[in-house]
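Z., the sequence and structure:
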Amino acid sequence: MSKRAGKPSADRPTALRVKALPVDTLRENVVMLARDCRALRPERLKGSRKVEVRGAGRSIVASILIVDDPALVSATDVGITRPALERLCLADGDDVVIAPAVSPESLDSVRAKIRGETLSEEAIFAIVRDLAAHRYSDMEIAAFLIASASFMIAEEVLALTRAMADVGTRLDWKRDLIVDKHCIGGIPGNRTTMIVAPIVAAHGLTMPKTSSRAITSPAGTADTMEVFARVDLGVDEMHAAVEKCGACIIWGGHVNLSPADDVLISVERPLSIDTPEQMVASILSKKLAAGSTHLLVDMPVGPTAKIRSGVYAQRVRKLFEFVGARLGIAVEVMVTDGGAPIGRGVGPVLEARDVRAVLDRSADAPMDLREKSLDLAGRLLEYDPAMRGGQGRARARDLLDSGAAARAMDAIIEAQGPPPRTARLGPLTHEVVAPHGGVVASMDCFRIARLARLAGAPTDPGAGLDLLKCTGETVRAGEPLMRIHGEEPSDFEAAVEAATRTCGIDVSAP
């Protein structure tokens, strides 16, 4: 007979019945208890506000909400939201036991870091394990991030990178050469990966590309690739696609690479914390977990890019090289022009259009996207021991111009399967025109990206900006500078209103 009610026995705590709640709390574990809960008095939780939930051999630490409506959660129930339920692998009606959560011991190391101490490798591993297990509150995560941003030596960055890679899935491709590329970010439309990967695959190198979804940008590579194909592949499906095609372009979050990094990012972005140390650990932990042996880092430098000076770029490059060498990854940092967006589209559907135009050798393909992709692909092809030095870019151009890269992309799309929905360009449009004649003097990457997000990208794949002019072009008064696309009227109108104040394209008077 189930012990779901009554007083707990001396040797066994009272079990509560799981009530599955149709509530998505995103990454956070949240449970709900009745104020008259039979198993645990809510007043016992005023200090920590967290409980440990155990059931079916699994346990999680969760934040607690107190419910006064017995129709929602009764005294013998525990309401569990979707993320927590999935991590426990339980269903509605199962039994669990709860208890006040014990504060993670690794928080002592966080406090030491706040005092300015250097942490040992063991301390950093303990912190990362607790982060991946969702044992930290957002406040505690923020404390670790801010303390680390204040002072972190290279050896700590190395330890953090190793720990984040180890706590999660590690891929092994049983090959000596696995190439990859990563862009630091901050440049709208810079969708070179979707051109580079098929060029590399067409040449015969292996490139299992795991990409991110957008966090603060109008589109991540995974968002744009999802216009063409499914990106939420599991590990076995990923292996099958790479064995068949030599490459894939998938969302890394579905294969559990460096899960602690995803936890840190979720708090890091709202706080606008983006130090070189955290950036390097984030990127290289995922590449190490993905099994990469050779990594090309695209580092755009420009006045409105993420990296805004040569001095800062050099600092980041040296840290990449130090950590990469200690991890056994050959890292090359390529400094590129970050003064303006790349391509014409900003937003998943518009960026996918530009990628397809380059691959299909269309007459109206954006040349800046084509040329930068060839530069990057050429450098990756130079990692091939059989490639004659200095011939990488010419080989990349031949593969693109012959249609081999387009065929490789088609094979990747087929292997990954169809996307979950058909994405079309947003039907709501508004053109932003030049206030006067002159020359496009500059383009603000940050403002342009923000405008595309206001329009609804990437939540609405068809929302975003079509950039009709580029830096250095002459324009007439009233001539369109950009076209805003939207799907939802409220988002679209917000973007139009913001563009009337400033659209991010500066036209100098003649």
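The chain has four domains: 16-100, 107-151, 179-256+271-416, 428-508. The longest helix spans residues 310-327.

Let me know what you think.
H.
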